[in-house]
Write a structure and sequence with these properties.
Length: about 350
């Protein structure tokens, strides 16, 4: 009796620990990459069901298999529930989140009811043939994964996360054009982890960037932006300290700045000013990275306004039809820049901005 009671207790304990650890480990990424984690949750749920089916076949590993299955289901409940809330907010175009949530729940109930009726009809066919039952499971699971992939791929989210920002920025640097939300979402990878190795950390504490007054002066010198940035070339890591005054546009610029530094270590065409910096990065010593950061501040002073709002038009030309080769910025292309889905930590700092340089 004790052995029988030990299995559900071990299973429940494993699931609870897994739920807590996963929420602590990946909770902040679920908003940023809602589509990827939604698909991950659907696939992991199918894996958990497969483990439950296989558990009685291998009684030696029964307890371990059941615990693993329950752990997977608890991770699914966290990832699936959190991403459902994020996607419901995206779909509530008229601020009708409760209405969308209720209809989504009714739709899921209807699908489950249809599945229940179908299972009652198929039960006499599969009960006497385990191999046929397993074949039906693999067939229906494949259809389930494909349907969820197509559903997630059809989503067009107009706010920028790191993946979408990198796609749009790379296209802008190479061709001078800003991708529309539809195009960028179609190109966005849906498998978590399959992405370039640049590590971008926004909102880190100040002590991670500098340990001396001299280093701090190097970070502040030459710009007036309310963020400080450090670039570690060897680890391809960018860390950003945000000021108390940093708003959505500043955070978007800081993320763009970090991705531009990452682009200097990759191949592909770049604007002339960045091409020159890339040559220096590949040939120069790593200890001069703060000089490259300072000069990219100056490049972004000209580049980022075009990237965000497009090239400025004179008052006389604004009333006329836009030229054929006019390239819109993020805002004109349909992106919502007043919000973002970047992973930003809560640390903020306060410092005196550098005085503006007088242009003679």
């Amino acid at each position: 009796m004790e052995v029988v009671a030990r299995v559900p207790l071990s299973s429940d304990a494993t699931g609870m620990l897994g739920r807590i650890i996963f929420a602590w480990w990946k909770g902040s990424k679920l908003d940023c990459n809602a589509k990827q984690w939604r698909l991950f949750a659907d696939i992991l749920n199918d894996v958990a069901m497969f483990l439950e089916i296989m558990a009685p076949i291998y009684p030696v590993c029964f307890t371990m298999t059941i615990c693993t299955s329950n752990l997977a289901k608890c991770i699914v409940s966290v990832a699936g529930g959190a991403t459902r809330a994020a996607l419901t907010m995206h779909q509530a175009r008229r601020n009708n989140m409760a209405d969308v949530s209720a209809k989504d729940s009714s739709q899921e109930t209807m699908v489950n009811l249809a599945g229940l009726l179908a299972s009652l009809l198929m039960l006499p066919l599969v009960s006497s043939c385990p191999s046929f039952s397993l074949g039906c499971f693999f067939l229906l699971t494949s259809l389930h994964i494909y349907a969820n992939y197509r559903a997630v791929r059809a989503l067009v989210i107009e706010t920028l996360n790191e993946h979408r920002l990198w796609l749009v920025l790379k296209h802008f640097l190479q061709r001078g054009e800003v991708l529309s939300p539809t195009s960028a979402n179609q190109m966005e990878p849906l498998w978590t982890g399959l992405w370039p190795s640049l590590s971008l950390s926004l909102g880190v504490p100040l002590h991670r960037l500098t340990t001396s007054v001299f280093e701090f002066q190097q970070l502040v010198e030459g710009h007036q932006e309310p963020y400080l940035l450090r670039w570690d070339q060897s680890q391809n890591q960018v860390q950003v300290v945000l000021s108390q005054m940093a708003g959505p546009e500043t955070i978007l610029r800081a993320a763009t700045h970090g991705l531009v530094l990452g682009a200097l270590q990759e191949n592909g065409p770049l604007p002339a000013e960045l091409e020159e910096l890339r040559t220096r990065v590949q040939a120069g010593p790593e200890k001069e990275s703060w000089v490259i950061v300072r000069e990219t501040h100056q490049v972004l002073d000209k580049l980022f306004p075009k990237f965000l709002k497009g090239p400025a038009l004179s008052a006389s030309r604004q009333s006329q039809q836009l030229p054929h080769d006019f390239s819109p910025g993020l805002q004109d292309a349909g992106w919502k820049t007043e919000k973002y889905q970047l992973e930003v930590d809560e640390w903020r700092a306060t410092w005196l901005l550098s005085p503006a340089k007088k242009v003679l």
